[in-house]
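Reviewers of the previous submission asked for a worked example of the structure-prediction workflow described in the proposal, so we include one complete record here. The input consisted solely of the amino acid sequence. No template or homolog information was supplied to the procedure at any stage.
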Amino acid sequence: MDAEQLLTLLAVAEAGSVSEAALRLGRGQPAISERLHKLTREIGEPLYVREGGGIHLTPVGQALIPDIRQLRAKLQDIENLLMRQKSLQAGELRIASTSLIANYLLPPYLQSFQSQNPGVNLYIKSGVTYWGDINLSELDVFFFEGEMDIPHLPDSYEIQPWLTGEIVAVMPKTHPLASVSVLSLEDIQPFPVVWREPSSGVRRRLEKAFRQKNIVPAHFIEVSDVESVGAMVKAGLGIGFMTHTVFEQRPDWDLLYKPLSSSQLIWRSFMAIPNPARRSRALSVFLDLMGSIPFR
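From that input alone, the workflow returned the following structure tokens.
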């Protein structure tokens, strides 16, 4: 018994006839019939009956179909894996990430990768806030922020730490706290704050710090991305939070940043990637490039 015989039975079951299955598989009808005969002999029981111009599976044949479909899916996975190992003269790199990482941290690495590998297409899915928003098997790498809930991963994947950053408070230059050099969480408590979405790594880290000190901010505004944080803060609606790295990239906001007194307020990011044996060539090259270029 071999996989080709089993897949032929599946093709006949789905097509309803030997002739149609032969067309779908690109084989002659005699070859299809011979595979079915060999499989029937090896199983030792009839797998199908001919009725009219078509074929119908017996209960034994029907019982095999779910497992054969799983086999076909596994073989397709293997085929996809082999395809992704082809030369980087043509190929693709598929990335998913949060909006902050996609907009502020990945671009210099992507620019270097594309300049060195112009034949590789880049697919970037940004704005991912929950693991349920992605299918890891369709990606090369998923960049996510620390404090995000991590589900059980397949054995073929691993989590690696990536960049870290100091979390700072941002405010207008006219804010009452503008003259304070380093802010404590107690300093911030009387003022409204501007949060990112609940899954934000910066927000989760700060909320945890506030809870540890039994501090509740006066009230808050919730927005969906760091650009909106900057806009709301600029409008005087509250104190915002982001990494110092992100703040440095937005001089157009014309805001102040203030360090926070807690030394533990560090933002962290991670990568979910396949194990080395299952990485595409494009991903392996991209990871090597990220390791050789310091973030600037």
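The two ends are 58 Å apart (CA to CA). We consider this example representative of the routine output the project will generate in years two and three.
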